[in-house]
Amino acid sequence: MKNIAIFASGSGSNFEAIAQACTNGTIPAQIVLLVCDQPGAYVIERAKKYHIRCLIASPKEYPSKTDFEQEIVRELNQLNVNLICLAGYMRIVSNTLLTAYSGRIINIHPSLLPAFKGAHAVEDAVAYGVKVYGITIHYVDETLDGGKIIAQEAFAYDGNDPAEVHKIGQKIEHQLYVQTIRELLIRN
Ligand code: GRF
């Protein structure tokens, strides 16, 4: 059985999709850890429901970001984590984690990268008048929303409501993330 850790800062609908897929066997793995930097985030409630261990910690509580990430790496090592999935984790992962888990950290982003990086990808794309939107899953490197692309799915939308784009995109995210994690774990 492979072990997954999920890093999230918010609602955690992707976390839930992955947890469900692990429970019903679509993903041949278990989530052994949620790392969350926001004590009030709804994703923590979701993790409790699935009895998944949570590490709730923010870099502010540590002398440096390196110390913060060293603590996370210790937990990941103890739990024999094979794959780290960022799902709405609003922090840049830095060297300590990247070195320890090189090639084993992936992220989901609500645009067709390399277009529209950053925290407001959908809003920026709508403001730009984009007609073809999409979702990207990519390996994580030291740059914001950089790293080699693993999977993408596009959809057409000709309107100006970011909430609608988020809604369509999230449905795609849940399927694409589950399918991509499954394939990565089966292959490696
Ligand atoms: C998703 O839209 C993802 O693309 C982005 O953050 C959002 C997280 O949503 N990186 P949720 O917390 O999984 O619902």
Features:
seven-stranded mixed β-sheet, 188 residues, binds 5-O-phosphono-beta-D-ribofuranosylamine, alpha/beta, Rossmann fold
Model description:
By secondary structure, this protein is α/β, with parallel strands linked by helices. The chain has a single domain (2-187), classed as Formyl transferase, N-terminal domain (Rossmann fold, 3-Layer(aba) Sandwich). Helix content is 39%, strand content 23%. The protein is built from 6 helices and 7 strands, in the order βαβαβαβαβαββα. It has helices spanning 13-23, 42-49, 65-78, 95-100, 121-128, 162-187; strands at residues 2-8, 29-36, 54-56, 83-86, 105-109, 132-139, 149-156. A 7-stranded mixed beta sheet has the order 3-2-1-4-5-6-7. α1 (13-23) runs parallel beside α6 (162-187). The longest helix has 26 residues, at 162-187. It is globular and about 50 Å long. The two termini are 12 Å apart. The chain binds 5-O-phosphono-beta-D-ribofuranosylamine. The site of 5-O-phosphono-beta-D-ribofuranosylamine has 14 residues, from α1, β5 and α6.
Secondary structure: elements and pairs:
Layout lengths: L1 E7 L4 H11 L5 E8 L5 H8 L4 E3 L8 H14 L4 E4 L8 H6 L4 E5 L11 H8 L3 E8 L9 E8 L5 H26 L1
Parallel strand pairs: 1-2, 1-4, 2-3, 4-5
Antiparallel strand pairs: 5-6, 6-7
Helix pairs in contact: 1-6
The site of 5-O-phosphono-beta-D-ribofuranosylamine has 14 residues, from α1, β5 and α6.
Helix amount: 25-40%
Percent strand equals 15-25%
Radius of gyration: 16 Å
CATH architectural type: 3-Layer(aba) Sandwich
**CATH domain class:** Alpha Beta
Which compounds are bound in this model? 5-O-phosphono-beta-D-ribofuranosylamine
Extended strand count: 7
Query: How many angstroms separate the termini?
Result: 12 Å
List the domain count as a whole number: 1
Q: Given the helix and strand composition, which structural class is it?
A: alpha/beta
- Mean model confidence by pLDDT: 97
> Looking at CATH, which topology would you report?
Rossmann fold
Q: What pattern of helices and strands is seen along the backbone?
A: EHEHEHEHEHEEH
Q: Sheet with the most strands?
A: 7 strands, mixed
Kindly report the name of the CATH homologous superfamily.
Answer: Formyl transferase, N-terminal domain
Number of helices: 6
**Main sheet: which strands, in order across?**
3-2-1-4-5-6-7
Shape: globular
Task: Indicate the low-confidence ranges by residue numbers.
Answer: none
